[in-house]
Amino acid sequence: MKKLFLVACTVLVAVLLQAEDGYRLWLRYDKIDDAALLQQYRNTISGIQLEPSSPTLSVARQELLNALQSLLDKQITSQQTITGNCIVAGTPSSSSIVKQFLSAGNFNLGKEGFVIRSTNIEGKKVTVIAAGSDIGVLYGVFTFLRLLQTHQHINDLSITSVPAIQNRILDHWDNLNRTIERGYAGISIWNWHTLPGYIDKRYIDYARANASIGINGSVLTNVNANALVLTKEYLLKVKALADVFRPYGIKVYLTAKFSAPIEIGGLKTADPLDTAVQNWWNEKCNEIYALIPDFGGFLIKANSEGQPGPQGYGRTHADGANMFADALAPHGGIVMWRAFVYDVRVQKTNEHFEEGKTHEHSATIASDDRFKQAYNEFKPLDGKFRKNVLIQVKNGPIDFQPREPFSPLFGAMPQTQLMMEFQLTQEYLGQATNLVFEAPLFKEVLVADTYTKGKGSTVAKVIDGSLNNNTVTGIAGVANIGNDIDWTGHPFAQSNWYAFGRLAWDHDLSAAQIADEWLRQTFSNNSAFLDPAKTIMLTSRETLVDYMTPLGLHHIMGTSHHYGPAPWVDNAGRADWNPVYYHKADSAGIGFDRTATGSNALSQYNPEVQKQWNNVNTCNEKYVLWFHHVPWDFKIQPGRTLWDELCYKYNTGVDSVRWMQAAWNGLATYIDQERFEDVRMLLGIQETEAVWWRNACLLYFQTFSKMPFPANYEKPDHDLEYYKALKFPLAPGIGGNM
Amino acid sequence: MKKLFLVACTVLVAVLLQAEDGYRLWLRYDKIDDAALLQQYRNTISGIQLEPSSPTLSVARQELLNALQSLLDKQITSQQTITGNCIVAGTPSSSSIVKQFLSAGNFNLGKEGFVIRSTNIEGKKVTVIAAGSDIGVLYGVFTFLRLLQTHQHINDLSITSVPAIQNRILDHWDNLNRTIERGYAGISIWNWHTLPGYIDKRYIDYARANASIGINGSVLTNVNANALVLTKEYLLKVKALADVFRPYGIKVYLTAKFSAPIEIGGLKTADPLDTAVQNWWNEKCNEIYALIPDFGGFLIKANSEGQPGPQGYGRTHADGANMFADALAPHGGIVMWRAFVYDVRVQKTNEHFEEGKTHEHSATIASDDRFKQAYNEFKPLDGKFRKNVLIQVKNGPIDFQPREPFSPLFGAMPQTQLMMEFQLTQEYLGQATNLVFEAPLFKEVLVADTYTKGKGSTVAKVIDGSLNNNTVTGIAGVANIGNDIDWTGHPFAQSNWYAFGRLAWDHDLSAAQIADEWLRQTFSNNSAFLDPAKTIMLTSRETLVDYMTPLGLHHIMGTSHHYGPAPWVDNAGRADWNPVYYHKADSAGIGFDRTATGSNALSQYNPEVQKQWNNVNTCNEKYVLWFHHVPWDFKIQPGRTLWDELCYKYNTGVDSVRWMQAAWNGLATYIDQERFEDVRMLLGIQETEAVWWRNACLLYFQTFSKMPFPANYEKPDHDLEYYKALKFPLAPGIGGNM
Fold first, then answer.
1. Do residues B91 and B130 lie in contact, with contact meaning Cβ atoms separated by under 8 Å?
2. What's the burial of A36, exposed, middle or buried (CB within 10 Å: 0-12/13-18/19+)?
3. pLDDT of B12
4. Which residues lie below 8 Å from residue B221, measured CB to CB, with a gap of 6+?
């Protein structure tokens, strides 16, 4: 007895010494700390029957065993036959019981769906996790484990789950030298130098984490591409990663540099209509698929911000995309062609672009409003793309701002397969240090109505293919993952990776449900913790909008690095890189007139959508400066001028961060000290940055409004010149800065 | 009983789920797994008495408590009074018992030394850890814990330990954007962007690890310096790190860019004899010390590889160093002035230097042998430096090669305080992927005899001040630390950090003892593991020399990145950047004649040293090509020509790596799977690289020797052209490559 007690002490010490470093993400599998529930789970789960007849089923079985033994603190047997309270998992091929179970039901599980059901088989109460495919079983296993980790009842389960979107993909803007464009969590987890000989355990845990939330694709390389990744030496490294990811249902994709046939192929041209170029890509695809039979395909940024593309040869985006599509089609690969383009014709050649590349001179449509340009270039091409081409559209018309209206392209290309590009990494959302839960942003876009086929034509329905009957569908999130021990730098940034995966699988999930799930798995099921923490998460994005870009302001961040406020910048290389271009503040007012009296960008939307925004008196104030140049004394709220409202919003943002701090400080006793302290310190930085944003922006805009700060607000502690003088040459996320 | 058993199971599962990710370094404190010894330790240690009356004593107490509870798996009480089997630790100020104990003995502990003694106090058997200073107590605590971790007997302890060298410093070649020059373990652990608001737990664990081996200084920034770190914004970040490190006895140092008065001070000159410049540095030091009262001082690379320096103003290194020394002296700071200089006068201006900087034109002494240049520049300045200046000399005359003779400067400047610069990061020692234990290299240099004051005038005695009666002494190691989870990338690279600290404290320790200690703490005390693992470590450096640069070859690595073999390179920007400059292979033979018939670099050594090396017939073959151009058919061994010997050495190197692989594979059962697999995979890469080195070098040198490969050796699997065509533009450690 004494000996056992000593052993018990060991638990405590061992656990204390193991820091909560965040590496485990939401797959912590700590012992269920609710005694009654634990007993109930133990009663319901005695063993598992899962024939590991494939690599995927093998990892599913191992995950289930490891997790259950840890969660239930109990030996779990892996058995050949059914006993009471066992879990039976498999496919019709791997298990005759599953075969019988599925044929008895009326399931439509597709390639990736699964069923979890509490039922009786041979007179024994069992839980069945069944799928038509191996990967469906793995998804079912992770879903079942989520139920336990979030303390759900599991005695009467009847779950059927099928993903809404086929290709659920992380885009890594990772360079081959391991820097990450817009990365705020260290460097790339892909260590190209030691691949393929060295397989970092991280590669496996990355695949596990993705599979646990249904992500099934990974674009390994930056959209600002390096052709070297297509050389044999690198393809062998890519193959090594593909081999690691395959059991977890994750396909690898690469970014294809349009000029690769010249750079590494020795050709004189990259013209997509040139037979030699087409042959080169065909051969390259043959080479890739010989190594990686399930290679996913290419993501391509062309004729944008200095990247070469078909327009350099007088061809269209469709010509370019279709060339890749034809090369990939025989192997089943897809092309994701980005719609993030904006006019470069007004610029002289060889200028340095925002993302640090030198652009080639190319022929595009001139325009006075960057908002309109993706639509202008792509709308005319509707219906001209091959069936295995997806046009990848950023959620908004500009560039991942704290709030944007949805991109008008989502309502404009019914004959084209569009996919969504969200940005998980917080380029414009406080970067390394701000707590921002992005699910509310994602949801806001997904539920937005394009009215293309009448009310209810949501962006989600465009993306999931249901509105236009698409046969291939996709959604991408620009990853926020780096080699920081906790993967994402800010502990709460993990929630954005998680939310993306969950919404990609099921866009009907609410932000609140996702926050709840994530918090329970990542921190605690204690409601005294959950309720305040959930409120912090669910209000965090609106809080950021308030102290950064309220009322529809956008793109007023520091040049290039996008760190901190710089609404005064008016000397960037081209007009539409300047904050002044976007806010247009003057003595008359502030905001970008995109109605018919202005750039008329609004006309790119369905009339029903236009109606929401085209009248300054009825336009929701969240979007008003996106579409209107509003006089400073305009009464935007009863009794409040635009200027007053701007002051109110900026101050509300700061107050909200201070509320977050206080709320978080009340949670110290519920979670580990390490992560509590991490978040506490980061909220301190966030408060400083929120104050900086408020002070800098209000002081600057005041030079136009000439109106006083309303009484009772905190006064700026520096003058405008102080803020304008701040320089951050080493801010992370660009060039070699980390 | 059943309940307790379940708890016991938790231990197992919890431990299994916690990966051995290497983060804990040699401070793992796992429970003693030898039952008899555990019982003995438990009997000897019941509680501790350590009054935490200062931050340092507080961390000492916490470390002791945490570690003992974990190692002994037993509750340890922290008590006010003495009881039997307690540990009494403190200083005369913190503890009356310690005061009495120390005054009864005849100890000379200096500022950092300590005593550990088993004794009787008030009739009770206790273990005393006593020191004259708080930091001495912390060092004593870590030493005591090492005894336990390495399974030493602790019943009859009588240890007195005082460091041989005062300033034991890690030099981080970390840039402010977090890239690391010659870093192979991720990016800098200093996250300048989130400092000072966010204190990464790593900063604390870095300090703990260093204190545990006696390292007491950290140069935070790259010798190729960025003046920005001296601005107020960055000094506040430096202060935050200094505050974290202070309880652990670690001072922070910065690299001072010579041109900082111009770059950030607005002056027109950086001339060290200019009063305005001197005042600027004086004021800068005042500013720094107001923030960081125990700031250590500056490390300066000047007039070397593009770094500006006093010679740009017609001044000497002494003029430059003394200016800094005068600014630091009032505050107690030191200057570490690097002797790593080589002639640039033969070059034209604005050329790109090896380390990626543009050099300024400066007046130095022309020379035909880079070997001689540090001596040529510094020897004439002997005695001209202030008392708080240390001249920091790399261990060898060239640049951290796998083997170099010791730098002749160590025997040449008796009136100057020299400090050693070792390189822990494996720039020329296999970088990210090769297992090389460096203690044998360090020892080889430290025990080398300069004969300056007769036999026994070892380099160690120069460094520790005993030969020339120096009042300030120092030793630096260029850190191999990055943000990889395990700190150093290769699990065995941790041993080089460890070995440096241990030798800096006590250079009499043998490499074998250090390997033994490190292995026991890091992996296992099981002799079935220890013996083979120790052999792997102790032979690893000679193995690397064999497959990379045998017989005194040096600097034949790839240009700039120094990755892989490139003995054929002859077109680098200046003569002494080319491998052909160093090996001088031709039809007559191979090697650099540095005797009187050649560059006569040998004359820089004491005649006794010259005698060892100046005769090709008696020169140890390890050094022969350092000093002689040796005919291919020269009989270097009975019955073996130089060519045969070269072939033999390269093949021996490959064979030795294969032996390491086999030996390691036999150790799988003794350690955790994760680190076992890590090392196994890395040894696989090392084998590939060893074969590559052998094949490329032998094929190339054969074009001169025109002699056949001896029979029975493995034949190269590619031709020379294949190896010459290999390019590694993204090899890590330079520019933005990681």
1. yes
2. exposed
3. 39
4. B172, B174, B175, B176, B229, B254, B255
Please say whether the beta carbons of A157 and A127 come within 8 A: yes
- Could you give the CA distance from residue A412 to residue A378 in angstroms, rounded to a whole number? 9
pLDDT of residue A343: 63
Per-residue model confidence as pLDDT tens digits over A243-281: 999 999 999 999 999 999 999 999 999 999 999 999 999
Report d(CA B359, CA B369) in Å as an integer: 20
Q: Is A78 helix (H, G, I), strand (E, B) or coil?
A: strand
Whether B433 sits inside 8 A of A197 (CB atoms) is yes
Q: Point out the least confidently predicted range of A243-257, A532-546, B9-23.
A: B9-23
Cα of B147 to nearest chain A Cα, Å:
20
CB within 8 Å of B586: residues ≥ 6 apart: B704
Residue A189 has pLDDT above 50, yes or no: yes
Q: Catalytic positions of B, please? A: 305, 399, 427
Give the residue-averaged pLDDT of A74-95. Answer: 95
Give the mean model confidence (pLDDT) for residues B562-578: 94
For helices B511-522 and B439-446, the axis angle rounded to 10 degrees is 150
Minimal Cβ distance to A197: which of B4, B9, B688: B688
Distance from CA of B24 to the nearest CA of A (A): 9
Burial A445-470 (b: 16+ CB within 10 A, else e): bbebbbbbeeeebbbbbbbbbebbeb
Q: What is the pLDDT of residues B267-326, one digit of tens each?
A: 999 999 999 999 999 999 999 999 999 999 999 999 998 899 999 999 999 999 999 999
Mutate to test the interface with A, among B1, B11, B21 (most CBs of A within 10 A): B11
The interface predicted TM-score (ipTM) is 0.94
- Which residues in chain B have Cβ-Cβ distances shorter than 8 Å to A198? 433, 678, 681-682, 685
Of residues B19, B731, B735, nearest to A201 (C-beta): B19
Q: What is d(CA A528, CA A523) in angstroms, rounded to the nearest whole number?
A: 12
- How many other C-beta atoms lie within 10 A of the C-beta of residue B532? 17
**Distance (Å) from the alpha carbon of B315 to chain A's nearest alpha carbon:** 33
Predicted TM-score (pTM) of this structure: 0.95
